[in-house]
Automatic annotation (TrEMBL):
Recorded topology in the membrane: Multi-pass membrane protein
Coiled-coil region(s): none
Family named by the database record: Belongs to the CDP-alcohol phosphatidyltransferase class-I family.
Protein name (record): CDP-diacylglycerol--serine O-phosphatidyltransferase
PROSITE patterns the UniProt entry points to: CDP_ALCOHOL_P_TRANSF
InterPro entries named among the record's database cross-references: CDP-alcohol_PTase-I, CDP-diaglyc--ser_O-PTrfase, CDP-OH_P_trans, CDP-OH_PTrfase_TM_dom, CDP_ALCOHOL_P_TRANSF_CS
NCBIfam families per the UniProt record, alphabetical: pssA (TIGR00473)
Ranges annotated as spanning the membrane: 93-109, 121-139, 145-164, 176-195, 201-219
């Protein structure tokens, strides 16, 4: 029983480890690997909360651990990735600008954690840090096709959108994990990379994570559909 209740936390720690590895890959100049690991972290992040509810393993520890993992994987890791790929040309100013992203992200997470449960069911106040980090990872993954100025503008915009008061629909009623749309884009990116014949540059973990996550999506969709049929 104790092992079952610790499973969601294992996914959260896996998310955190992906963020750590992403920073390491970015420092080594393997930017595609770093971006992919952030997206894998998104997969794990979208699963830990639902697994906790399925296993009735919700806990204050899990919630705090989730926030700490998010600030590393979707705050610190993307900021390092953007710094090494775009902002390093600005020297010390570049690292200072890159540091704004996790600062705004940390504020966004803290504000979300103290927000009322009722409002968070229907919408988010400001762009979630997970989505913001995933967008930066995708921009970096396709950096050869996107001008640097666009990435810089998006980076700056996301910083302020995270702490804005704009209401972002949560889409929690959709029978997919809350970040299913971005993960679908990720799967499309993976197919594109394989098509271009550069798949050998990516970590083997992606070939494990992707089919497992697709199976998870299918399970959630079928379960949601069966539940609706039983109610009818």
């Amino acid at each position: 029983m104790r092992f079952t209740k610790s499973i969601p936390n294992m996914f959260t720690l896996g998310n955190l480890f992906c963020g750590f590895l992403s920073i390491g890959f970015a420092a080594e100049g393997e930017y595609n690997n770093a971006a992919i690991l952030i997206l894998i972290g998104m997969m794990l992040d979208s699963m830990d909360g639902r697994l906790a509810r399925m296993l009735k393993a919700d806990s204050s520890l899990g919630k705090e651990l989730d926030s700490l993992a998010d600030i590393v994987t979707f705050g610190v890791a993307p900021s390092f990735l953007v710094y090494y790929t775009y902002l390093n040309q600005l020297g010390k100013l570049g690292i200072m600008v890159a540091g704004l992203f996790p600062l705004f992200g940390a504020y966004r997470l803290a504000r979300f954690n103290i927000s009322s449960t009722k409002s968070s069911l229907n919408y988010f106040i400001g762009v979630p840090i997970t989505a913001a980090g995933g967008i930066l990872a995708l921009l970096t993954l396709f950096g050869n096709f996107i001008p640097n100025v666009i990435t810089t503008v998006v980076f700056t915009g996301l910083c302020f959108l995270m702490v804005s008061r704009i209401r972002i629909p949560s889409f929690k009623e959709i029978p997919l994990p809350k970040y299913g749309t971005i993960v679908t884009l990720f799967i499309g990116c993976l197919l594109f990379v394989i098509y271009k014949g550069t798949y050998k540059q990516f970590p083997y973990l992606i070939y494990i994570a992707t089919p497992l996550y697709i199976a998870y999506l299918a399970y959630r969709f079928v379960k949601k559909k069966n539940s609706k049929e039983e109610l009818e």
